[in-house]
Structure formats: structure tokens, C-alpha cells
Design a protein that fits this description.
The chain has helices at about 5-35, 40-60, 65-85, 95-115, 145-170, 170-180, 180-185, 190-215, 225-240, 245-265, 270-285, and strands spanning about 135, 140-145. It is mostly helical and about 300 residues long. It has a domain at about 20-225. It has a two-stranded antiparallel sheet with strand order 1-2.
């Protein structure tokens, strides 16, 4: 493979995977801002979304739109079950309880995946939407696989939709208010418990969509969730745990670092690069690239 072509493929795959990490990080940031908590099951929901997409596309032969609908339906169902199970814990003062509950949810989702799909991994044959002629630039010197373009476009569309949701929707404004000051939001009549529950459901929906986009590009296996969570969490740390745009930038940066390390160093050093990036960011930018400074009242 020519150097220019290799670089273009590495950059394309890095951006595509990075945007998916950014989606996972977006879910992490949403819950962190609204409930000051972390959902350790975030990556497992990504895995569940991938397996559901695998089943509907490969086994049942559904189309892309029908598969998206099924993935969203499963995500909403899981979100509602989490809401019922953790209703008493979804309060600002019970962040530790939510943390522990999410660990239990992580093991539960892994168990469900093993029960339904078994303990072995499997590949999803590239669906028509993700296959086709690559994008050829510079007279054939730069070739970008269509799969990465579709993943990138899908991730960007989802990010734009959720950005508009947080900026203009009533629930999005409520989430931002609760994130800024939960007690003040409660005083002015904002239903904080409902907002926190909605934040959990929204983070699960985002994760499931990321799983759908990731399914055609990776080996699906039951224990993949924790690794995905770590990468999403790393992206959130790099961008700033309280910044929605930072989650996306952090994800893309992490994806590019992983892709370049895998291509020019070793694929075995790919996962290590994520931890090196986190350590470097915490050392030089403790609040992340877009982290907000907390001001103390005097």
C-alpha cells in the first residue's frame, strides 16, 4: 500500500472510530453533567446495540432503517428498565448508588449477551449501506473506504441532532439547568428526578446508536463493553468531563492516536495509547481541553 493511501486510510479509520468514541463519551458527559455520576454499563450498551444490529441485519435480513428502529426500541426498553430499577438512586445525592447500580447493570447486560448470542465473537458481514466503491481522490493516490465515510456521516448526524436537542429542547434546557445547580433547579420547579432519569435513558440511546454504527467494523464479543467504556471515558477526560464538544474532540483525537499507533508502531500498542493519552492530558491539562474552571463562592 502506498504511503499516501495508507495515511488516508489510517486517518479515515481514526476519525470514524474517534467519532464513535465521541458518541460514547457524549453519553458519559451527559450523565456526568446531569447526575454527577458515571454509568459503567455504557460500553456494554454499545455492545448490546451491536449484537442487536448483528441479529436484525445478518440473521433476520432486515433493512438498515428497520434495524435502526429495532436498536432504538431495545435501547429505550433498557433505559426504561434502568429507570424502574434505579429510580430511587437517580437523585443528585445518590450518585454513589447509581455508580454501584451501573456496575451491576454491566454484569447483567454481559450475561444477557452470553445467554442469547453465546460467549464467542462473530463478525457482521458489511451491509449494503456500508459497502460499495471507495472515495478516490488525487487520481487514485488517496482511497477512503466507503465504510468509514458512512460511519463518519452517521456519527456526525447523531451529534448534530443531540447538540440541537441540548440547545433548543425543553428537556435539554432542563438537563443543563440541573447540571449547573440541581438544588436551584428543584427550587424553581424543574422535576430533577425525571431529568436525571431522562439523562440515563438518553445516554443509553446514544450508546446503542454507537453500537449500531460500530457493528459492521469490528468483531463483536460479549466482553467488548468494558474496553469501549474505557475509550469513551478516556475521550471524555481528554475533552473535559463537563464539555459536550470536548467529548467529540477527545474521541476524534483518541481515534487518530490509536489508528496511527496501530499502523506505524504495533496493533498491540493500540489500547496502550489510550492510557498514555489520558495520563498526558491529566499531567498537562488536568481539566481536559475544554474543561470548565470551577469557581468558589467567597
Amino acid at each position: 500500500m502506498e504511503i499516501k493511501n495508507m495515511i488516508s486510510v489510517l486517518v479515515a479509520s481514526g476519525v470514524a472510530n474517534g467519532l464513535l468514541y465521541g458518541l460514547i463519551a457524549l453519553g458519559v458527559v451527559v450523565l456526568s453533567k446531569a447526575a454527577n455520576a458515571v454509568n459503567f454499563a455504557q460500553g456494554d450498551v454499545v455492545a448490546l446495540g451491536g449484537f442487536v444490529a448483528f441479529t436484525t441485519l445478518k440473521i433476520f435480513g432486515f433493512g438498515i432503517l428497520a434495524t435502526i428502529g429495532v436498536v432504538l426500541l431495545v435501547a429505550l426498553l433498557v433505559g426504561c428498565l434502568v429507570y424502574v430499577a434505579l429510580k430511587r438512586l437517580l437523585k443528585p445525592e445518590h450518585a454513589n448508588g447509581l455508580l454501584i447500580g451501573s456496575i451491576g447493570l454491566s454484569f447483567l447486560i454481559k450475561g444477557v449477551i452470553r445467554l442469547i448470542w453465546g460467549g464467542q465473537g462473530d463478525y457482521l458481514a458489511t451491509p449494503p449501506m456500508f459497502s460499495g466503491a471507495p472515495l478516490i481522490l488525487m487520481g487514485g493516490k488517496v482511497v477512503i473506504p466507503l465504510q468509514y465515510l458512512v460511519m463518519t456521516a452517521g456519527a456526525i448526524v447523531i451529534l448534530v441532532v443531540f447538540s440541537l436537542f441540548f440547545r433548543f429542547s425543553r428537556l435539554g434546557l432542563f438537563m443543563r439547568s440541573v447540571a449547573d445547580n440541581a438544588r436551584a433547579a428543584m427550587i424553581v420547579g424543574i422535576p430533577t428526578s425525571f431529568v436525571l432519569c431522562s439523562a440515563v435513558v438518553l445516554s443509553i440511546v446514544i450508546a446503542a446508536i454507537a453500537g449500531f454504527l460500530l457493528a459492521p467494523a469490528t468483531l463483536l464479543y460479549p466482553d467488548m463493553g468494558f474496553s469501549l467504556f474505557l475509550k469513551g471515558f478516556a475521550a471524555a477526560i481528554v475533552g473535559g468531563i463537563s464539555s459536550l464538544p470536548g467529548a467529540i474532540v477527545g474521541g476524534v483525537l483518541l481515534g487518530l492516536v490509536e489508528s496511527i499507533v496501530s499502523g506505524y508502531v504495533s496493533s498491540r500498542a493500540q489500547d496502550l495509547s489510550a492510557f498514555v493519552l489520558i495520563f498526558s492530558m491529566l499531567l498537562f491539562f488536568p481539566r481536559g481541553l475544554f474543561g470548565e474552571k470551577k469557581r468558589r463562592a467567597v
